[in-house]
Specification:
single chain; alpha+beta; SH3 type barrels; Porin; 6-stranded antiparallel beta sheet; 3 helices
């Protein structure tokens, strides 16, 4: 009987020791997790105590002890002033993500060439200048006659196009601590275009009395003006080169008597009471 009682007390003692070890382990784990707290200091003075998982280009990922370890939170880097790690290391994002300094480093001038223009009978080059964040002025000069003459019109002349570009930039950072170029992004650009050229065009004429075909090729001067609202996107790579595309429509008029509708900077459609104008293109450029 005494042996049974001794074994019983021995089992109780072992169970107590196991429970004590488990409790000590839990206390050590909880204590360690409480000590291993990182801190995120937001620009609005709010402080988040957490465990940093990843400091990314655009967001910081972290977990919080009151939630499951599978739950990960994110916070945009532009809302963070600094991060203090449990080890004592500090990352000061407010200094590294200074908008004015990054914008000042961005190139504000661009020279571009229309890649489609030579196939439509002209050579067009464009100058773009940033005047402020998300705003730029763009002016193009087209030399009509430099390019492939698909219709044998032997056209010679020029056009001028100028517009104010409003850039819509959703993506702010292209890599750590750097803004994308201030000339990068979707844009809306209202344009005014003036085109003047001489060309040989086919004039159809028919005498209903004699049945004689009086059609002939006639050399004439043509002028057109248009106001066009364009939308497009410009991609800037490494703050050095750029590619852009656009398309637009608006209103225009011309001196042509329906002998031509293409004026190199734009195309007219519709009747004389309300002639619609269309434009499109894509460019390749260099920043400086």
């Amino acid at each position: 009987m005494s042996t049974v009682i001794q074994l019983f007390y021995l089992k109780i003692t072992i169970m107590k020791n196991i429970i004590s070890l488990i409790l000590i382990g839990l206390l050590i784990t909880i204590s360690g997790s409480l000590k291993a707290q990182d801190k995120i200091f937001k620009k609005n003075k709010e402080v988040i105590e957490c465990k940093i998982v990843k400091v990314g280009v655009k967001v910081v990922e972290y977990t919080q002890p009151q939630y499951s370890g599978d739950v990960t939170f994110t916070l945009p880097v532009d809302r963070i002033a600094r991060i203090e790690f449990e080890s004592g290391k500090i990352i000061n994002l407010a200094e590294q993500y200074t908008g004015n300094r990054s914008f000042d480093d961005s190139k504000k001038n661009m020279f571009k060439i229309d890649m489609i223009a030579p196939f439509t009978g002209n050579f067009t080059f464009t100058y773009e200048r940033s005047i402020k964040a998300n705003r730029s002025i763009e002016t193009s000069l087209g030399l009509i006659g430099l390019g492939f003459d698909m219709d044998d019109e032997n056209a010679t002349g020029f056009f001028i196009r100028t517009g104010h570009k409003f850039i819509i930039r959703k993506e702010v950072y292209d890599n750590a601590y750097h803004y994308t170029s201030i000339l990068d992004g979707f844009f809306i650009r209202p344009d005014i275009s003036l085109s003047y050229f001489s060309a040989t065009t086919y004039h159809y004429a028919y005498n209903p009395v004699t049945g004689q075909d009086l059609s002939s090729y006639v050399r004439g001067d043509y002028f057109s003006a248009a106001f066009i609202l364009n939308i497009g996107k410009q991609y800037v790579f490494d703050n050095s080169i750029a590619f852009s595309w656009w398309a637009g429509f608006g209103y225009g008029f011309s001196s042509s008597d329906d002998y031509t509708s293409y004026f190199y900077s734009h195309t007219l459609a519709g009747d004389n009471s309300f002639p619609l104008a269309f434009s499109m293109g894509c460019t390749f450029g260099f920043l400086y």
